[in-house]
Design goal:
The complex is a heterodimer.
Chain A lengths: L1 H17 L3 E12 L2 E12 L3 E5 L6 H7 L10 E9 L2 E2 L7 H7 E4 L10 H11 L6 H14 L3 H4 L12 H13 L5 E5 L7 H14 L4 E5 L3 H7 L2 E6 L2 E7 H6 L4 H7 L5
Parallel strand pairs in A: 3-8, 3-9, 6-7, 7-8
Antiparallel strand pairs in A: 1-2, 1-4, 4-5, 9-10
Chain B lengths: L8 H5 L8 H37 L4 E10 L2 H4 L10 H5 L2 H13 L6 H10 L4 H11 L7 E7 L2 H7 L16 H13 L2 E5 L2 H4 L12 H32 L4 H13 L4 H15 L7 H26 L2 H9 L4 H29 L3 H5 L20 H9 L5 H31 L4
Antiparallel strand pairs in B: 1-2, 1-3
Helix pairs in contact in B: 2-19, 11-14, 11-16, 11-18, 13-14, 14-16, 15-16, 16-19, 18-19
Classes of the chains: A alpha/beta, B mainly alpha.
GO cellular component, one term (chain B): plasma membrane
Membrane topology (chain B): Multi-pass membrane protein
Protein name (chain B): Phosphate transport system permease protein PstA
Chain lengths: 271, 438
Amino acid sequence: MNMLSEAAVEKALDKKMNEVAYKMIGKDVSVYYGEKRALFDVNLNVRENTVTALIGPSGCGKSTFLRTLNRMNDTIEGCRVTGKITLDEDDIYDKEIDVVELRARVGMVFQKPNPFPKSIYENIAYGPRIHGLARNKADMDQIVEASLQRAGLWAEVKDRLHEGGTGLSGGQQQRLCIARAVAVSPEVILMDEPCSALDPIATAKVEELIHELRANYTIVIVTHSMQQAARVSQRTAMFHLGQLVEENDTDKMFTNPDDQRTQDYIMGRFG
Amino acid sequence: MTDVVSFPAGASAKPARRDIGIKRRYAAERRFRAYGIAALSFGILFLFILLYSVVSKGYTAFQQTMITVPVEFSEQIIDKDNERATDPQKLVTANYPLIARNAVAKVLGVAETDRSGLRAVNQMISDGVRGQLRDMVVANPQIIGTTQTVSLLAAGDIDSAFKGQIDLSVSENNRKVSDQQVGWMNQLAESGALGKHFNTGIFVNGNSSRPEAAGVGVALIGSFYMMLIVLVLALPIGVAASIYLEEFAPKNKFTDLIEVNINNLAAVPSIVYGLLGLAVFINFMGLPRSASLVGGLVLTLMTLPTIIIATRAALKAVPPSIRAAALGLGASKMQTIFHHVLPLAMPGILTGTIIGLAHALGETAPLLLIGMVAFVANYPTTPMDPSTALPVQIYMWANEAERAFVERTSGAIIILLLFLVVMNVGAILLRRRFERRW
């Protein structure tokens, strides 16, 4: 009896744990670059406080999909997005939505580390400054320290905050970029192959960091490395030729995928 | 994914020979290097010839022959009837060259009755002494009746003769200075009365038909005003236009057309801009002729395409990753451009601007058409006043007949080149300040 109720409680808890909270919902998302269609009616939901990995061969549309999530595609001439993407119920392609505010809520880390050619401090402080997040210098100092700490960079750079951000090593630069994205307190962080320009040790550090960030942020990461997807993500989505092939728990994806193409790709038969 | 294309069968049969033509390849490289070095040496040689010819001809222009003698400010000549208290014009219109002539004649021992001798003495002194002595007397009327030691400006021909620029072996009738004057000149030089002094006049005087009194003062001010106008107008307009075209304007046929036209405008002969300025600024808008304002406006039009092309290239060269980083943080397009892109493009923009300014500084043709080729002796106080420009001044002096203008033409070229060097050094220093690695 007791045992049973305990099991029931556990089951209920489990169910609650498994009750999915979606942070972003993409419905019938299609992207056109001029005449060329790059994405075909993608339906993909991003779960809150989860790392979602987007995998697939080059040119399959995974980066394009990632960039629709904070409307970075807007900056490309001739790019058109149809369908609907919501962030906490807000349609982000709605005319009412301010793209500047959206990008503050959905931050982005790029493939190549791209710190501003300014000091480490200024790199972090820029975002909070333009969004008015700090009322005074002490506030700003605190934001800078907290962001660097979140990105695991504080210990390495605390004595050289006012030296150039471009003088750091590649891995440190990428973590600086993550700290910079974190500094504006986003809800979602998009990462476009964040480790492709890094050596294995720096990659391991960034992966570890992604793991820690998951507690506070929803993360979507595009990666070419199957191992990386398997290591850092809880959910994986497989793209092929502009279509979403399959989206599943990472464990299932890598052991027993539903779709043959996923299996072939993961086994290295194409791509 | 791709089909494997195999090498032709024969290729793999024998071991590959990699030494075919290797000597020729190295020879081609050596030849190319030799061409490069030859071209460079040629360029450097011509640069040296240019600088040598300008400096060797022009350095004497910075020295001026003066005759230092005791001058008696005779009341008899200046103000015979003692009217200076009631008529101030009296001091202005007095016969000062006579005072100067008498002073030199006295030192040389020429009798007051020797009329041809006195005329020859008079020819040795510049007419510029009129202004020189007048200014002394007007500033301090007390000196009338006293004797003061004054360095008088020697006439242009004496200046040239003393610098050895007049061939004295030519027969006396065919040269500008007589044997008698040369004798006096040597006599005065031996006694130390006649000698070369630093020529401040060439920097501060306005134009003059007498080479010894001519200077580039007015031209310097005119050129300075024009550069200021070009900088103030062309830089912001050019940079704003480039930012709009590069970052905001949609890419369509119309903007393509504009781009082609801007590139073409940079190649339009400058005299055409002069005609445009004449038609628009002077005939239509009624701005004054010969004014550095009009000159500056014309040069602005001429410089704009250069600045726009350079600025667009500099903006294009900023890595897109910097833009993406700023946009990804939620910066607006305007913030992205002004906080990140523009500072990084600044060195390139400055380089383009300085090239445009240097081009404008040396431009003569359009200025001829808007009347800046005028003879201007008085300082312009505002850009609306008539003035001239350094290259125009050089052009005008190059047309003068007197021997002494030859060295002054080269002297003015040296001043123009120095002006350019100062501008370029300023630009390099500014660029250093803005330059950042990324």
